[in-house]
Design goal:
Neuraminidase; Rossmann fold; 6-stranded mixed β-sheet
């Protein structure tokens, strides 16, 4: 369990059974979905022969919708027809198969080498078109186009903004504990594909978080022999090491407006929460208590901080109002609650909860004071929310190896992203970003 106790010790020492292949993460295994998922057919898109080396667009879209747990895509071999344009759609074929929604499309190569994808979404029961759009981008954005189509289909059919065209970052540790140990900060699509290394080191990397515009990440690096907070530009790779104070420098997290960075420092002898103004690098000390205060996160309105503290004797979660410094305890069930994150609605909390000696991810309704344990695996840690608030990614263990897993906020949808190249830990889900326009 990578808790604030481990960060503290590092700082003080100063040093539905569906499986899909992925490039960087061996297999994505969907463990569970909703009881009655929506039946949807994503027909193989018509692709120009010049695009044959690319993954099939329909496969990416179908997998996106399947891993949401809300949809059950129809197998290609069970389709009665394979329309790619409107005049070829015969709704009776799809009603016979019990399909509720139908997606068709065509992919073409433009004269300048770009690819363009036209697609349609149909409501089969009512025989009506719901979406008709065309996306164009450079060839290297092929998967981004697919994810954007998935987002559009998801939003049109569920009323919730899709989060497939987002990114994740995570720490990949190889040979941890051995003299040959290496650590890298990886960035990948939300389905684990196209992973690349942002930074690598022989020293630990911890606590990565995104800026609200998705252009910068903050994390803790021990590359100098002691913990320091680094800001890194995603596209250019340029890095800035913030001033290193004596003792702990940890747990950086951007404010919703991107102008401030909350962090944990022990510059005054005890781990306390500070906020740095990123424009002038001025620090403001937020907490003042003899207990450990750590793991800050912001409320969506940027007016409060949620944090973990031992001030009650055991790790629990508290909320601090920045204007008044008024502090309220939020969790009372169990003797260990930590690493909290608020949902976009500001009314629900996800966090690490210990039950019967095992660490799980839990969800709590702050208004009704109702708590639900979402995960059943062991050593679950580092929950990070999708920007639409419907899913969260976290780190867990599978046969002694660190992997990433995703669970829906209601606990009904679960899937895992196993890794074959090392221990994966400390994931962070990006905000909404326009991956078609980014560099």
């Amino acid at each position: 369990m990578i808790s604030f106790f481990r960060i503290l010790s590092l700082g003080l020492c100063g040093s539905s059974s569906l499986a899909f292949a992925a490039d960087t993460l061996d297999t994505i295994i969907i463990d569970a979905g909703v009881d009655n998922p929506v039946r949807i057919a994503v027909v193989p898109f018509r692709q120009r022969s010049e695009l044959d080396g690319l993954p099939r667009m329909a496969d990416i879209i179908g997998f996106d919708l399947a891993r949401s747990g809300q949809f059950a895509p129809l197998d290609e071999e069970n389709m009665l027809s394979y329309p790619t344009e409107e005049k070829e759609v015969f709704f009776r074929d799809w009603r016979i198969l019990g399909v509720e929604y139908l997606v068709i499309g065509r992919a073409n190569l433009e004269f300048n080498g770009d690819v363009s994808v036209s697609y349609h979404l149909y409501d089969v029961a009512n025989e009506r078109q719901m979406l008709n759009d065309r996306l164009t981008a450079v060839r290297g954005k092929w998967r981004d186009i697919a994810h954007h189509i998935s987002d559009a289909v998801f939003e049109k059919t569920t009323g919730i903004r899709g989060a497939f065209a987002t990114k994740i970052i995570y720490v990949l540790a190889r040979d941890a504990g051995a003299p040959s140990a290496t650590f890298s900060l990886e960035i990948a699509d939300s389905d684990g594909e196209r992973a690349r290394t942002l930074f690598s080191s022989r020293e630990p990397i911890l606590s990565a978080s995104w800026s609200p515009d998705g252009r910068t990440v903050a994390y803790v690096s021990f590359e100098t022999g002691r913990p320091g907070i680094v800001l890194q530009d995603i596209v250019s790779g340029s890095r800035e090491l913030l001033p290193q104070f004596k003792g702990i420098n940890s747990a950086p997290v951007f404010s919703p407006d991107g102008n401030s960075l909350a962090m944990v420092l022990s510059r005054d002898g005890n781990p306390e929460i500070y906020v740095m103004n990123l424009k002038d690098r001025r620090l403001r000390r937020i907490t003042r208590h003899h207990a450990i205060d750590t793991e800050p996160s912001w409320t969506p309105d940027g007016q409060n901080l949620v944090f973990t503290s031992e001030r009650g004797g055991r790790p629990q979660i508290y909320l601090l109002e920045l204007k008044t410094n008024f502090i309220e305890r939020l969790t009372f069930q169990g003797d260990y609650n930590a690493r909290a994150r608020l949902l976009p609605d500001g009314k629900h909390l996800v966090f690490v909860h210990r039950r019967n000696g095992v660490f799980h991810i839990a969800w709590q309704d702050l208004e009704r004071d109702v708590m639900q344990v979402l995960t059943k695996t062991a050593l679950d840690e580092s929950p990070s929310l999708a920007p639409n608030g419907t899913m969260l990614i976290y780190a867990t263990q599978d046969q002694g190896k660190g992997i990433l897993a995703v669970v829906s906020i209601d606990g009904r949808v679960k899937y895992r992203l196993p890794s074959s190249s090392g221990d994966v830990r400390e994931p962070a889900w990006s905000p909404f970003i326009n991956t078609l326009s980014e560099g």
